[in-house]
Structures are given as C-alpha cells and as structure tokens.
Automatic annotation (TrEMBL):
It comes from Piscinibacter gummiphilus. Pfam families: ABC_tran, TOBE_2. One of its GO terms (biological process) is quaternary ammonium group transport. InterPro entries: AAA+_ATPase (IPR003593), ABC_SmlMolc_Importer (IPR050093), ABC_transporter-like_ATP-bd (IPR003439), ABC_transporter-like_CS (IPR017871), Mo/tungstate-bd_C_term_dom (IPR008995), P-loop_NTPase (IPR027417), Transp-assoc_OB_typ2 (IPR013611). This is Fe3+/spermidine/putrescine ABC transporter ATP-binding protein. GO terms for molecular function: ATP binding; ATP hydrolysis activity; transmembrane transporter activity. The keyword Cell membrane applies. Keywords: ATP-binding, Cell membrane, Membrane, Nucleotide-binding, Transport. Coiled coil: none annotated. The keyword Membrane applies. GO terms for cellular component: ATP-binding cassette (ABC) transporter complex.
Length: 331
C-alpha cells in the first residue's frame, strides 16, 4: 500500500523575538506531489521548511503528515528528510559511507547498510563512483549523493532548501529534470524552496507564492501564471504588465499585449521606449502617452511578426489586449 505522504499546515506561525517570519499560513500539499515554496528573500520560505523538518520550533499552529500531528515530534521521528543548500557531505567518508551513515547510527549491519546505499546510489546514477571521496566529485554529483543520503532515512516527505542554487545554469536545468523524475519514481512528497519562478514553474504540481510571511497565492503553475491574484504575484512571476483600468488594476501577459500602427477600439496610445531582441521574440517596451513617462509596459512580439513590421524607439503606436486576457488584481 502506498503511504499517505500528504502535508497539512494550519495557522502556522513562526516568530523570532519581534520578527514574524511566518504569519499564520494554511496550506494543503497532496500526497506524492511536488510543491515549490516560491518568493523573495526573507518572505518566510526557509522558516516554513525548517518547521516542517522539526529543525525550528513552531510558535503556534499545527503540522500534519499523513493525517498525524507531527508539530512537536523530534526531527528523526517525523518521516521527513532535508536536503540542504550546501550538500554537507562528510569529507573523510566515501560516497558509499556517506549514504550509509544514518543506518550506521541506527546500528544496522555493514552488509545491510551498504546494500541499501548501493541501491540508492544506482537510483541517482552514482553507483560507479561509490568509493570516491566527496572532494573528488562535481557539484552535480555531490548533489546526487546528498539526495541518496536523504533517501536512506526512508522519508515520506523530502524537503529541499534551494537545492539547485550552487550549480551552474546548464547543470541546474539538467538536475531540475532529474529531481522531477526521482519524485515521480519514488512517489512521495517533495517540498522545494526556491526564489526562482522559472524553477518553480518547471517542477511544481503546486506553486505557493509567499510574500511578507504570508501566502499570496497557491495553485498549479498554470493557474498562478495565467491568473495572478495580486500585483505582487503578477510582478514576481514576470512576463506580465500591471495596468490601471477604470475598474482597478489588471494583469495582462506581455505576449497578449498587441501593438498596432493605427488606432483600434479600446486601444491605448503608447510611445515605444526600447526594443530588446531575445531570440524567439522581441520585447518592445512602451509607455502610455496619457499615463506618464515612468509607466512601462512590455509587449512580447514573436520575432517573425516583429521583422514583418519593425518598431523603433520614439514611434507612437496603439496597445490593446483581448478582454479575456485582463485579470483583475486585488489591491
Ligand atoms: N534565526 C533567526 N533569528 C531571527 N530572525 C530570523 C531567523 N531566521 C530567519 N529570520 C527572519 O525571518 C524572516 C524570514 O526568514 P526566512 O529565512 O524564512 O526567509 P526566506 O524566504 O527563506 O529567505 P531566503 O530566500 O533569503 O532564505 C526574515 O526576516 C529573517 O531575517
């Protein structure tokens, strides 16, 4: 039977003296799903993760794993394992012994622990390097070992704190795909802290956008990207314009903002301010003529469309968007 690895956070609060790091959040993370906690520095992501792990006490509120309260359980008794930003491998132990370490602490025999460690090293494609020392591995390889070591404790929930931030951009994209594959193969819950919206969109079943110790919005990457609820989410997810309309602020995706040379109904007159070539598209930055020079909107124009009618800074054009692509934002 597959174990229930769902997580529920209710009215969870973390205070450090006068600082409120997490201000009473409610969140349900379904069993066997990939959840990304996303937000700017200091918004409370790591504090949330550390409370789930039991590395930080909860000021108030509750945490349930698989329907059982774990709020006050010892870290080792929770069914969670944490993979850290720095991989924190023991430098003097081989890869195999690093992975087997937690079973040594539990008094399991060498044959038993090495057998399981080898299985996990094979899972993360590191079986061939089992006898190396951590210093003889690349960053991506060290990360695989750190993952195998976390899995050795047989968690139901794996907690990952910025696991890709130390890798170069090429490796980051490769390891991202592997994390997703491992999560699907293992079939348990991953909670991954990141400040990269691109990473969260690529990985998550559920993206949880945090700001100022609270959850601004939680949903699938498509829901959060296509229908941001607040100005903060629209700006943080990027590729959106926040536009004042008579009914209040709206978000319009940059690729849904159309530019016309002649007026069309409901269009706003705008001045082209800058043109940035991006390869597959061209970003055209415009300012509404009636809106002040410090307001900028961006239209993302496919390169072939732009090439058919190039625009240059200083030109005046007309910006419009389909009504269905205007998402009302809460203030
Ligand atoms: N041990 C601590 N003592 C006092 N304040 C803390 C402590 N840990 C975190 N904080 C504060 O709590 C708030 C949330 O911090 P947290 O580390 O959870 O944010 P974060 O979103 O993970 O940020 P980052 O992306 O920079 O890691 C911040 O204002 C931070 O300064």
């Amino acid at each position: 039977m597959v174990q229930d690895s769902s997580l529920v956070l209710t009215a969870l609060v973390k205070r450090y003296g006068d600082t409120v790091a997490v201000a009473g959040i409610d969140l349900k993370i379904p069993s066997a799903s990939y959840c990304c906690l996303l937000g700017p520095s200091g918004c409370g992501k790591t504090s949330t993760l550390r409370m789930i792990a039991g590395h930080e006490t909860v000021s108030s509120g509750e945490i349930l794993l698989g329907g059982k309260y774990i709020t006050r359980s010892a870290p080792a008794d929770r069914g969670t394992a944490m993979m850290f930003q720095s991989y924190a491998l023991f430098p003097h132990l081989s890869v195999l012994d690093n992975v087997a370490f937690s079973w040594k602490m539990r008094g399991r025999s060498e044959a038993e622990r090495h057998k399981r460690a080898r299985e996990l090293l094979d899972l993360v494609s590191m079986g061939a390097l089992a006898q190396r020392l951590p210093s003889q591995l690349s960053g991506g390889q060290q990360q695989r070992v750190a993952l195998a070591r976390a899995l050795m404790t047989e968690p139901r929930v794996l907690l990952l704190d910025e696991p890709l931030s130390a890798l170069d951009p090429f490796l980051r994209v490769q390891m991202r795909a592997e994390l997703k594959r491992w999560q699907q193969e293992l079939g348990f819950t991953f909670v991954h802290v990141t400040h990269s919206q691109e990473e969260a969109m690529a990985l998550a079943d559920q993206v949880v956008v945090m700001n100022n110790a609270r959850i601004e919005q939680a949903g699938s990457p498509r829901e959060v990207f296509n229908a941001p609820r607040s100005e903060f989410v629209a700006r943080f997810m990027g590729a959106h314009n926040v536009i004042d309309s008579p009914a209040g602020p709206i978000a319009v995706r940059a690729d849904r903002l159309a530019l016309h040379r002649t007026p069309v109904p409901d269009a706003r007159e705008v001045a082209v301010r800058a043109v940035e070539y991006q390869g597959t598209c061209v970003l055209v930055k415009v300012s509404p003529v009636a809106g002040g020079a410090e307001t900028f909107w961006t239209a993302s124009v496919p390169d072939a469309v732009f090439d058919a009618g190039p625009l240059a800074p200083g030109e005046t054009v007309y910006a419009s968007w389909p009504a269905r692509d205007a998402h009302a934002l809460v203030a």
